[in-house]
Amino acid sequence: MDKVEQVGNFLKRVASDASLGASHVSFCTAICTAWIENGLNNPFNISRRRLMASSKIKSTSTYHRILNDLKALKYFEYVPSFHPGKGSQVLIVTK
User: Fold this and answer.
1) What pTM does this model have?
2) Complete domains list, the chain, with CATH
3) Rounded to 5 degrees, what are φ and ψ at 10?
């Protein structure tokens, strides 16, 4: 499966999942945008601040709730770095 097809499959999965709310979809869109900006490399690094800004999530508690929901649903794997300059690692789960 090529990388463009992986993006399409990820977005179709997000769009068809009735259990996801608007914040979940916005977060997935932000993750997908970052994935594309990183040359569709998987995994890639991203910062919480950037994801919050891109997904329009203002509260860190909402950010963490959405992040944990999506991790539990296996949309991606997330490994925090706790290093402000490095960013956390995200691995998009493509099926």
Assistant:
1) 0.89
2) 3-92 (1.10.10)
3) -60, -50
